[in-house]
Amino acid sequence: MSKIFLDTNFLIYTLDNRDSQKHSTARKLFRAAVTSQSAVISTQVLQEFYVIATKKFGIDPVLVKNILISFENLEIVTVTPLLIREAIDSALISRFSFWDSLILVSAKQAYCEKVWTEDLTPGQIVQGVEIENPFLVF
Q1: CATH code, 133
Q2: What is the pTM of this model?
Q3: What H or E segment, with its residue span, contains residue 135?
Q4: Total tally of structural domains belonging to the chain
Q5: What is the full DSSP assignment across 36-94?
Q6: 6 close to 75: Cβ distance less than 8 angstroms
Q7: What is the pLDDT of residues 80-124, one digit of tens each?
Q8: What is the domain extent for residue 101?
Q9: In the chain, what is the greatest distance between 2 CA atoms, to the nearest angstrom?
Q10: d(CA 25, CA 120)
């Protein structure tokens, strides 16, 4: 399996069981990506995951912190000032939001072939990375 960047919304579905189909798909795909060592995230994703899990879903911050510790086994792209500048340039060119652009340049930095997200149009290739909605494909 090639390297796949996991967007925050994908990871949130591993916790959120309100949509049982997406929850089940996310957990299955997450296990497969971890097992094959193809899963990549960024420090941005870690931060967003914490905020969404604690604020939107009301999950105990200590529990979320422990989940984040388990994510440390994944490849993690550190958001640097250089990546931020690249994301700004990418956002200006692509007209995506800064945050989505930061995800895409982080995926490029890690040599990912795909980004799993619901936030962007599937099939587009941006920064050399294909956008894929894993809930439409599988």
Answers
A1: 3.40.50.1010
A2: 0.94
A3: helix 134-137
A4: 1
A5: TT-EEEEHHHHHHHHHIIIIIS---HHHHHHHHHHHTTSEEEPP-HHHHHHHHHHHHHH
A6: no
A7: 999 999 999 999 998 999 999 999 999 999 999 999 999 899 999
A8: 4-137
A9: 40
A10: 18
